[in-house]
Write a structure and sequence with these properties.
Strand content of chain B: 25-35%
Strand content of chain A: under 5%
CATH topology of the largest domain in chain B: Rossmann fold
Number of strands of chain B: 13
CATH architecture of the largest domain in chain B: 3-Layer(aba) Sandwich
Shape of chain A: globular
Order of helices and strands of chain B: EEEHEEEHHHEHEHEEHEEHEH
Largest sheet of chain A: 2 strands, antiparallel
Oligomer: heterodimer
Number of strands of chain A: 2
Low-confidence stretches of chain B: none
Structural class of chain A: mainly alpha
Number of helices of chain A: 10
Helix content of chain A: over 70%
Structural class of chain B: alpha/beta
Strand order of the largest sheet of chain B: 6-7-8-3-9-10
Distance between the termini of chain B: 37 Å
Radius of gyration of chain A: 18 Å
Largest interface: A-B, 34 and 36 residues
Shape of chain B: globular
């Protein structure tokens, strides 16, 4: 309990920032997914079916998955890097007697909140415009889990990046390819087996699989959920390690 | 003053091949104001980061309040407050939110935090600015907020890293008054500075550090006596030269021996003389240590 209470204390200042800036945060969270929806869903994909579903129904869970990644990751990675490198206020966390695990979790919560907000808005929108999508309690659970996983990846990246440039480099080389390649906008069946195998290892592929199954009511990929959880634990352990190592 | 509240033995910090701090011993006595005086790059900040658990020594041992510093969630940290050289605030939230956050990080109850915030913000003149974003405050006011954040949990030892660097005269004097007040209330103070007047004004004891080693330590008066209490400044070969004497008569004799057209000044020795004698008068380009996190 004290770990959770401490992590909530760590996250408090980031929550203050969110509370102060909620209108602009909502706008920035939603612009990219809505553009995907309009450009790919109604532009390119009109009249197409994938795996037996209209393209828009196939695509919305994918966009939800990639939104949890980009929204959570960008929020946390940028915040941690700025607080550490530019504001140097991250030192204050190292100076208090919070454990590295509490710090890692606490810094991840703000990203998770943003991921959940933007993803749930998309889900509600999808339910309104797409009759093939179903209301499922699994969706909020998956959104929370997924947002936390990518927020923890954001903590790791924010702790390792020594400038805006290195963070942008990581985003360009790792995050951006994942958003397009992990079955979010198209079926992986179309990919060559070797590429498909590589993509199958990436966490967003599993998030997309879970999200699509929950939203479209198909067989739930329990293995993918387990893989996501393993990634989450791994990111937490690495985050813990880099925070501990912060006492260089 | 009683025993040492901070005791460091043989602490060394290496960054690759560069030895920033080279096996120094530090004792900070309970209730004192101790100053670390040194030129840029001498190892002051690195030493302070090790003493405050922000950085682990490459070798050596540190005890704070009788307990050896160990893990990152060390309870020792609750005895420590630190005001860093840079003002480490979250600039996108308000002054009050910054201060309350520090109270939360030290697990203070809501009521205790409210009382302490009211007391400290009143003391520092921050009450009218509580709802302002920290980014909109000037440097001196940001420093005041940082001070409140650092002492909100009533630390037994307060570390200040060049606290008046870049501040205007009013803010410097306000800060000096506050340091004296905190010390009179029982807080032990450790301060790094390269301002001689600050060290002379505030410190009970001063250690002069250069190239990662403590080159001399004592009260300001002891340090002045160590090079001679009387200083003579004179022009020689187009540059200012200095001689120091233990006896005033010796200083007078030396003055008399100088040619009458040489401009001279005779005065009591000060910390700046000691500092320059021990650390040299040449300026050296120093490398900024980057702290990896």
């Amino acid at each position: 309990m004290s770990l959770i209470a401490d992590s909530v204390r760590v996250s408090w200042i980031d929550m203050c920032f969110i509370r102060r800036n909620i209108p602009s945060i909502l706008v920035t969270c939603l612009v990219a997914p809505l553009l995907y929806l309009v450009a790919f869903g109604y532009g390119l994909g009109k009249g197409m079916t994938v795996d037996g579903f209209p393209y828009i129904a196939f695509m919305i869970p994918g966009v939800m998955a990639l939104t949890t990644l980009t929204s959570s990751f960008n929020t946390v990675a940028t915040k941690v890097m700025v607080q550490r490198v530019y504001y140097q206020s991250f030192d204050e966390l190292i100076l208090c007697s919070m454990s590295p695990t509490a710090i890692a979790l606490g810094k991840a919560y703000a990203g998770a909140v943003r991921g959940v907000i933007s993803c749930m808005i998309l889900y509600i929108l999808g339910l309104a415009i797409c009759p093939e999508m179903s209301l499922s309690l699994w969706v909020p659970v998956l959104v929370v889990v997924s947002s936390m996983v990518y927020s923890l990846l954001g903590v790791v990246s924010g702790m390792l990046a020594n400038s805006n440039l290195t963070l942008t480099l990581f985003t360009s080389l790792v995050i951006m390819p994942m958003t397009f390649l992990c079955g979010t906008l198209f079926s992986l069946d179309a990919m060559p087996p070797a590429v498909s195998a590589v993509i199958g290892v990436l966490p967003l592929t599993h998030t997309t699989e879970c999200m699509r199954a929950a939203v479209l009511g198909t067989a739930f990929p329990w293995v993918s959920l387990a893989v996501m959880l393993v990634y989450g634990v791994a990111f937490l352990l690495v985050a813990r390690y880099v925070i501990e190592r912060g006492k260089s | 003053m009683s025993g040492a509240i901070v005791r460091a033995r043989g602490i060394t910090k290496r960054f690759g091949d560069h030895v920033a701090v080279d096996g120094i011993d530090v004792d900070i006595m309970e209730g004192e104001i101790m100053g670390f005086l040194g030129p840029n790059g001498a190892g002051k900040t690195t030493t302070m980061r090790m003493l405050t658990t922000l950085s682990q020594p490459t070798s050596g041992e540190i005890e704070v309040d009788g307990r050896r510093i160990s893990g990152s969630s060390d309870p020792v940290k609750e005895s420590i407050g630190i005001i860093q050289q840079h003002t480490a605030l979250d600039r996108d939230v308000s002054v009050l939110e910054n201060i309350r956050y520090h109270a939360m990080l030290h697990r203070m109850s809501r009521r205790e935090a409210d009382e302490r915030i009211a007391e400290l913000t009143e003391l520092m003149g921050l009450t009218p600015y509580l709802d302002r974003l920290a980014i909109n405050l000037s440097g001196g006011w940001k420093r005041r907020v940082a001070i409140v954040c650092a002492i909100i949990h009533r630390p037994r030892i307060l570390f200040l890293d060049e606290p008046t660097a870049g501040l205007d005269t009013q803010s410097r004097h306000m800060l000096w008054d506050l340091i004296r007040q905190l010390n009179s209330e029982g807080t032990t103070i450790f301060i790094t500075t390269h301002y001689m007047d600050e060290a002379e004004e505030l410190c009970d004891r001063v250690a002069i550090i250069d190239h990662g080693r403590i080159v001399r330590e004592g009260t300001p008066a002891e340090l002045c006596r160590s090079i001679g209490q009387w200083a003579v400044e004179y022009r020689s070969e187009g540059r200012k030269s200095y001689r120091y004497f233990t006896e005033r008569d010796d200083a007078r004799s030396f003055l008399d021996s100088l040619p009458p057209d040489v401009p001279t000044v005779s005065r009591a020795t000060n910390l700046e003389d000691v500092f320059l004698e021990l650390t040299g008068r040449e300026t050296v380009a120093t490398e900024e240590v980057s702290y990896k996190i």
